[in-house]
Amino acid sequence: MPDLVFIQPDGSEQGFEAPEGISAMQAATGFGVPGIVADCGGQAICATCHVYVDPAWAARLPAPAADELAMLDCTAAERRPTSRLACQIRLDAGLQGLVLHVPEFQQ
Q1: Fold classification of 4-101 (topology level)
Q2: For 75, which of 21, 50, 60, 85 could close a Cys bridge (C-beta 3.0–4.6 Å)?
Q3: Contact between residue 47 and residue 85 where contact means Cβ atoms under 8 Å apart
Q4: pTM over 0.70
């Protein structure tokens, strides 16, 4: 099973192994996942790595910090209850198989 799966708006999936300790955004940009722009490079100041955490996984993630919540108000695509910034999701063994949905647009 892939460590991380990104699902595009058209339903296509891209799964791959990613090392523990990096962010989901770093994994996405390193593996060329379309739709993860990451303009700020992971500083939580641009909201261009916005993702929708699959509902089956949402409760397994730590709660977002105040700065992430503030940036989620700035997303180009609709903010949903499972919206997160991929730069703020640190991968660890407990997130093996994490599924993230990419919004239709980031900017």
Answers
A1: Ubiquitin-like (UB roll) (3.10.20)
A2: 50
A3: yes
A4: yes
Domain ranges of the chain: 4-101
**Residues 3-29 pLDDT 10s:** 899 999 999 999 999 999 999 999 999
Say if residue 13 is exposed, middle or buried (CB neighbours under 10 Å; 0-12, 13-18, 19+). exposed
For residue 99, give both structure tokens.
């599924």
pLDDT confidence band for 100 (50 / 70 / 90): very high
Structure confidence by residue, pLDDT tens digits, 66-76: 999 999 999 99
Instruction: Yes or no: say if 15 and 29 are a contact pair by the CB < 8 Å rule.
Output: no
DSSP run (H or E) holding 71: helix 66-72
Q: b/e per residue, 80-102, with b = 16+ CB within 10 A? A: bebbbbbbbbebeeebeebbbbb
Which residues, listed in sequence order, are joined to residue 100 by a DSSP beta bridge?
6, 53
Cα torsion angle, 47, 49, 50, 55, sign: negative
